[in-house]
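Need tokens for this chain, all 148 residues.
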Amino acid sequence: MRTPRRRSREFVLQALYQLILNPEYSAQELSKNIKETETFLNASQEKKPKVDENFFDTLFLGIYPMIETYQIELTPYLDRSWEEVNAIEKAILLIACHELKTSPETPFPVIINESVELAKGYAKEDSYKFINGVLDRLSIALRPYDNP
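Here are the structure tokens for all 148 residues:
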């Protein structure tokens, strides 16, 4: 089920993907580009919101200045170098890392599940396994109080 928050994550994924491919863009430019797409506009204007615009803003604008920090935090849990991780996988990992660090009200299994679903929908066929493995280990490090 595509909740408003999942739709927001999908748009954050798109914005981060654009940023990874075009690092010269500012957060404001990328946010504006995404929000002006027909898909975002249509999803925002339906009677039952299909996109949580505030969540999109909070997530994307929170991740943008922290990308290098999150990359450093994620690297020990990768089975390859950051440069070898494809752009979609990078974006998904950045979203999850941010949520694990800044959203203690969201249970870590929900964050991992949302990330796996993004990978199944947008990444290469087996990327979800890679994402799941990295985030399982990262969640133990970032939220030891949540993990059994």
